[in-house]
Amino acid sequence: MKAMVKWIAVLMFVVLLAGCGSSKPTSPAPGAAPATAPAAPKAPIKVGGIFDLTGGTGDVGKPHSEGVRAYVAYINSKGGVDGAKIDLQWVDYAYQTPKAVEAYNKLTKQDGVSAVMGWGTGDTEAMKELIAKDKIPYISGSYSEQLINPATTPYNFIVAPTYSQASRVMLDYAKSKKADAKVALVYNDSGFGKSPLEDAKAYAKKIGLTWTGEVVVPLTASDAVTQVLELQKMGADYVLIQETTNATAVTLKSAKQQGAKIQFMGLAYSVDENLIKAAGDAAEGFIGIPAFAFPYETGAGIKEAVDFAASKGIKLEDLNQKWIQGWAFGRIMSEALKRAGDKPTGEAIRKAFESFKDYDLGGLGSPLTFTATDHGGAKKARIYQVKSGKWQPITEYLAPKQ
Amino acid sequence: MNLRYPFTMECGQYRTTYEQDLAFHPSRLSTVRGWVIVAALFIVPLALSNYYVSILNQVSIFVIAAMGLNILTGLTGQISVGHGAFTGVGAFTAGYLMKLGWSYWLAMPAAGLVAAAVGGLFGLPSARLKGLYLAIASMAAQQILEFLFVRAEWFTGGVHSMTVLRPKLFGHSLDSDYGFYVLVLSVAVVLGVFAQNLTRTRWGRALVAVRDRDLAAEVMGVDLWKTKVMAFALSAFYAGIAGALWAPFVMIINPEQFNFSLSIELLAMIIIGGLGSVTGTVYGVIFMTILPILVRSVTQPLAVLVPAIGDKLLLLKDIAFGGAIVLFLVFESDGLAKLWRNIKDYFRLWPFSY
Questions:
Q1: Residue A33 binned pLDDT confidence (cut-offs 50, 70, 90)
Q2: Do A129 and B304 touch (CB under 8 A)?
Q3: What ipTM was estimated for this complex?
Q4: Which of A52, A193, B105, B334 has the CB geometry, 3.0–4.6 Å to B338, for a possible disulfide?
């Protein structure tokens, strides 16, 4: 008898699990009255995600992917996009390009997704031909200006200030502080690292600053004293950093150690909470342009995100800037799907993106405008500074002056 | 003959000459089996969806690269952790030559030859270095080539990637996954048969002799230096061809695709599959390509069911890999090929195994 009760319990548990699993995409929220028959439910819209949770950039890729999934859960809990749920099919590709290609093939050929949210620079680059061939609108964490021209990459959309655009805003800032500033760039030998180099150099010359040169700090560097000494020798006083958290922290610490009088200015992936943890005191006074806002800022869009997280039991302290980035990705993609209407094909979503005009993200990031000739959505960027161990905005959203 | 039990190929075989012992196919039935397998490989994917065909493409390309490494590591006993870079040499050479206006059908073999030359060059230290020291020397090859891929922009396009279009055959572009698969599979079969035949030649036996005891091989008249360098060149040729197929498969290549982890992955493939075995290489590549996909398709639904563990399940993939490699090294160091042979032996001898 006892054994039988046990078996029934196990059976019920299994049924419960199965029920949870299968009911998730379609059934209404528990407790909703089944009596009122809802309007014929639309077929869910399939969207793909290629994330890095376990690979080289997993530290920032994981909160990003959680942010995307949180937004999808949020929009689906509100009834989806015009009544159609979003069915997010995602894959962890561990930051390996061949796996990303395989994942992309799975999502587009097997699952039949109509748009994809990707991640790294290397893999976004590697797939741009496939993306154009398959007509799959693609937004990714690679904010390279090489991807904004629809003549060469018709289905890539850049949803944050490109590295080049952020450099221009930063150089304007340097100019406003010191009219004859000598500027330089710290970068690394990858597509990501080199992306803003030429544009920043050209803009510095255009606004009358002196470009003193550039130095390489590898992404995995453990010290950058040589490079800092070289920057000092060049006489640079405002230096852009295009790196990820580790190399940025290493550079800042080496500069502090050498007592260098240099104002460092970080772009996108050098700007987040982890940097402050990694660089400690050396981060104080560092300025930067993050791709999206921080969760502790104010704004309707941020409040929405934080409130939803709170309803899932996630505290504000556990959220970070990359989570907000993921959330913003979800929101931008949903808006495009909404504008694409009833038949969200690749072409329709592309048209929908190109109808964005000053689309306001409610404080999550800079407003987005896409046109048929320009897929670099964010023309404005906002500068932040580390003050008493916290990133604080110090300007409004600014466009480059020239 | 006709009454024989059809699945027991070894039944009633009497080898009376040395040639029979060395034959590529020990019996007529195994010849037939070979052709049936090849035909099936070409025909069955017609019924599969594009996604599965694209996986098959990936598997076939990796098989070619891993077979090359297996000639070097499995047959000749020289360790290389630079094969990822040799693959890259092939890919970039093919892309560069096509940019110069070469036809793909010339560029692909040329890419293999260039990779062979580069492989031979970096194989030179093998004359003096053995074991771990050689492994470190080949790692240097990987680093140097990676640096060149990034810096030699005139050749590789540097970090801004290089676009490689799908080749045309009789004016018809191999755009579809199946069309490209036919090309990749044909190359893989030809190179596979070549590798299998290699062990039956004088030179192939010299390779094995070098692996088993280089001093003894030298005493018997094998030119060690020449043999080792040729083995490096041949294995890099395979890698180069694989690269030249990979480039039009993904259609865009950049240095990040041919990094150190690719070299390590190739090495893991042949260790799991079986060192020195062509069929083992195929098993190893299938295992290493399919396992992550399988684990993923199992863990992702699980992660939805058990949100508390959630994404941590994804780490299972890495644990499964590490575990598989350790288990193979401990229990069956000859890899999947030996495991398969053991299973066959069991059934062959059943019920009278002793």
A1: very low
A2: no
A3: 0.72
A4: B334
